[in-house]
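Annotated sample (chain length 42).
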Amino acid sequence: MLWSDPENEPPEEMRETQDMLRRLGVLMALAMVLAMLVIGLS
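Output written by the structure step:
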């Protein structure tokens, strides 16, 4: 790797997309738990 190579950092859009996907994953997991509870109670 040369000293002139750019920093190995993802671009801003990539980071925003990853954050959004992470939040979406957390929301999906919470929705699944909620659905299991509802199904279990009914």
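Annotation: Helices lie at 12-41.
Annotation: The radius of gyration is 19 Å.
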